[in-house]
Every structure is written in C-alpha cells, then in structure tokens.
Amino acid sequence: MSEVENRLSALGVTLPQPVEPIGSYVAFNRVGDLLHISGQVSVDETGGIKGVVGEDVSLERAQEAAAMCAVNLIAQMRVAVGDLDRVKRVVKLTGFVQAGPNFYDIPKVLNGCSDLMVEAFGNAGRHARAAVGVYRLPLNFAVEVDAIVEVS
User: Residue 74's domain is classified under what CATH number?
Assistant: First the structure.
C-alpha cells in the first residue's frame, strides 16, 4: 500500500471504484507530467449529497460533500497512475458549489476538498484553487471539483 493510501486509511477513507463519465468525455487526460481530472461530484456509496447549499444543504454538510469530491478525485488519480505516491503535486482545484441566492461561503465549502488533499498528500497537496458558486450542477449534486495534478 502506498504512503498516501496509508494516510487515507488512517483517516478512515476507503477509495471507491471511480464513477464512469456520464457524458461525452473521459474521466482524465494525461499530457506529459500533468493529469487533468474531469469534475467529480459529491457522490458516494449512499448516493451522495445533493441539493442547494444554503437551502437544502448546510455549510457543514457541503464541506462533507467537497471531501467526497476529493475522495473521488484521488480514486481517479489511482486509476490513472497506479501508485498514488507518483503524485508529485496537486497543482490546482476548481470547485463548483450549487449555491442558494444568499449563500456566500463558497470558499469555506471547498476547504473540505482542499483539506483532504493536504491530509492525503502532505505539502504536495497544497494547491492553487478557484471556488465558484453556480446555479445548478449535474444530477443536483451539491459540489463538483476538477483537478490538475503533476505526476511522475
């Protein structure tokens, strides 16, 4: 088991089998040392977290949703490179939150994803980020995050 998977295990995180794309795109694309991972939604084995943040979904629950996105991104990384220790750096995350009209804590939601990346990858998990509130997300999921990752 990789060092990253050991850290995840210590956190109680088990990586799922990645979700297949639901449209005309691929789950990830590697260009040189950069891995571009398509947006991963807040889905897990229970069905995930759906709804509008600030209305149906609390800030705390939305942070859990963002952490689910991180787990799904890491699962895609494992498929793409095999050994998660080959991840040299999480370069950038772009997060989308299905936010209600009076919800402004978008960056706080995305901390759920960012924090798990740092817990999993240590200093290599520190990244640039964009946090965007949107009107709707696919299949009514609360959060979606995509990533650019440097790999060896």
Answer: 3.30.1330.40
67, 77, 90 from 29: Cα distances, Å: 22, 11, 15
Total count of domains within the chain: 1
Tokens (6 digits) for 127? 């990244």
User: Structural domain of residue 108, as residue ranges?
Assistant: 3-151
Q: What is the DSSP letter of 46?
A: T
Of the candidates 67, 139, 130, the residue with the CA atom closest to the CA atom of residue 98: 139
- Per-residue confidence band for 1, with pLDDT thresholds at 50, 70 and 90: confident
List pLDDT tens digits, range 29-79: 999 999 999 999 999 999 999 999 999 999 999 999 999 999 999 999 999
- Distance between CA 144 and CA 48 in Å, rounded? 12
As a whole number of angstroms, the distance between CA 19 and CA 141 comes to: 14
What's the residue count for the chain? 152
